[in-house]
Amino acid sequence: xxxxxxxxxxxxxxxxxxxxxxxxxxxxxxxxxxxxxxxxxxxxxxxxxxxxxxxxxxxxxxxxxxxxxxxxxxxxxxxxxxxxxxxxxxxxxxxxxxxxxxxxxxxxxxxxxxxxxxxxxxxxxxxxxxxxxxxxxxxxxxxxxxxxxxxxxxxxxxxxxxxxxxx
Length: 167
Ligand SMILES: [Zn+2]
What we know:
- The chain is mainly beta.
- It contains one helix and nine strands, in the order E-E-H-E-E-E-E-E-E-E.
- The protein has one helix spanning 42-49; strands at residues 16-19, 25-27, 54-57, 84-87, 93-102, 115-121, 130-133, 143-148, 160-164.
- The protein binds zinc ion (ZN).
- Residues 58, 60, 63, 65, 76, 78-79, 81 line the site of zinc ion.
């Protein structure tokens, strides 16, 4: 009978002991790389880097919902037809529908706190997407303009945000 000499090996990194008194505390670094595809929504993120807000709409003439969607949907939530793209004409002016001050952001939020999270209505949209106000103090009904992080883009939805707009 053959014996299996293969042993289980520790393949991690040895932790660093920070202190032993009054109790042992170790430093145990944990990181992960999250690999994520934007799939059929890739044009939205490419658009942000180019200073363009792209929305999707349902091309099915018999669909009950033909308004624009931001965040975009790859397929129509109402009839499941593959959506088409439309670029919103700049400047994109919206109206603050709701807001909240974020004092303690969740893990992974890469904005300095506190910041104003704003829900913004824009003409032609079926949705009231969330984003953030770059500067200023929001009020309900306040006009805001979409701006874009075209220099050093994050390649995430943080590449667009709103700023106060005066007509
Ligand atoms: Zn549809």
